[in-house]
Amino acid sequence: MAVGLGIVLIIAFNNVWRFSPLPDALTDMLAVSGLMVLLLMPRQEGARESQCSQLPYAALVMVLLMVVAVIAGRRADFLSGQAVLVLSAGAIGSQVFFREAADNGKERLVTLVAHLLVFGALGQALVGVAQALGLASLARGWLVVDAMNPTGNIMGNIGQRNQFAHYLGWGMIAACYLHAHGRLRTVLFLPAIAFLTLVMGWSGSRLVLAYGLGFGLLALLWAVRARQDATVQQFGKAAAWAVMAIAFTQFFMQEINQGLSALGLPLHLSSGADRLMDAGFGARRRVEWTKAWMVFQTHPWFGVGWGGYAAQSVWLEAYGGLPKVPESALFTHSHNLIFQLLAETGIVGTVIVVGGLLLCLLPYFRKGETTPENLFLISMAMVTLGHSMFEYPLWYLPFLLGLCLVLALSPLRPITLEIRPALRRLLGGSLVLAMGVYLATGLPNFWKLVAYNIPAPSVAENEQRIAQLERIGLNPVWRYDADMVLANYLVPSAEYVDIKLAKLEPLLKYRPYVNLLLKVAMLRAYKGDAAGARDLVVQAIAAYPDALPFIFGMLHSQKHPALMPLQRLSETALATYQRKGALAAVNTVAAPVSRTLLF
């Protein structure tokens, strides 16, 4: 059990092989391999027949959401096999975690999880220290480094500052739980909390204050309701220390950095509180929330399809009439769990998820459930769901499995299914086989896509690569990723226009990056669709104004009468960009502001 959980909760968060075009593929594979190890573990004799016919509601929620994703994808003529994979893994993980708790006891499982999270969080925090001190680049690729900001972007091996702080928040809560049970003595607990909260502050995540406030309120509620439980009371005291440490490191970060600099450790990092007072939570988030609401209003029942938000976001940037906050990045997510579900799965998918969350989480607050284990688990959920209101951690499999753990261990009575033992074994074996096939085929596919992402100088070699990419694309899990790489080999020209459009246009529904928009625009122009071509160039300029030099260069890379209107459009926008900046350039093509933001 420890090995499988360790892979899911520690190793999967330490993937340093984040290569384009699939930076998270190996992370998913590591998480799936951890689930596979847990599935392969033999069950205790007394538990085989009594528990394997029980299903946690968390697994049912994942399955139902997967069905909605398939339905919505088919309705929109768009379906991401990756969504099916991730939601299937969530369902399997929920069942596996529930089974482990049933076989080994909830307290034993939670204690193991807490040990793993403390160990993993301290390790990640050490990586953060190496990044802050400029030492990570010396690790020969074993530590993640932001090449553009090596000592200012503190993100651990997780690779993103807010996800990094999220994981350290889990570790902080786990340390409090272990201290409450006497498994982490004060002499180790206090330095661990101080260290974790300091590095959380260095991450610059603005949500750390919310994590501290939420954890403090939950601990207070448990302490008030379980006055006679000495362990809960000790947990509350530990939480108080953690909250005070968060407050101190957030509001006195500059003084802390000055003190460390005086000791010879030059640091120039801002805490989340500093960033919050400087810029709030970011105006662009409010733009994306409004876009998601507009998409939902257009597709209310099943949404636009799983993964379809990105294309809607780009189109609305040009034609939605919203206030402009240019960032020149593709927003694949609206940065809010509820808005994203509404946009991509509609009312049906949102009701399933929100209803499932309430169904599984509310029992934690029932009378008689104020145990240390439940406080630890509900606090983990608080961090994850709080983060999900401003970003999308649940779109990363390890974080999704962390929430599935909480939902699966809910005090809610599970679903009882009458399934014969032989069929249960067959189902379990089939799942292991499917996961094994995914890993066996996925690993070579991943490395091929990484190797083939940039075309080779040799025409003959590129022809061989294209043939292999076509074969990889036959697998629905890898279809869109293979086609996205294949798009790099398709040059916009007047030859084979229909064939190229048939391959490239469907990708605009999934990932409308600037180069893809321009390729399809040029092909449409060659085909005689001047309006369709202009539409895509307008979207490219509106969504990626800082890419205007690239847009100008690509549109002028070929001389053809059909491209001249597009070239003039880019010339005007580029000249405005150079004189007045990104916002002015966007306004040369985008619809005028006619709407207000939701918030």
Automatic annotation (TrEMBL):
The chain crosses the membrane at residues 28-43, 55-73, 79-98, 110-143, 163-180, 187-203, 209-226, 337-362, 396-414, 426-447. The keyword Transmembrane applies. Residues 154-179 form the Protein glycosylation ligase domain. Residues 377-547 form the Virulence factor membrane-bound polymerase C-terminal domain. InterPro entries: O-antigen_ligase-rel_domated, PglL_A, WaaL-like, Wzy_C_2. Coiled coil: none annotated. It is a multi-pass membrane protein. The keyword Calcium does not apply. It is found in: Membrane. This is O-antigen ligase. It comes from Gulbenkiania indica.
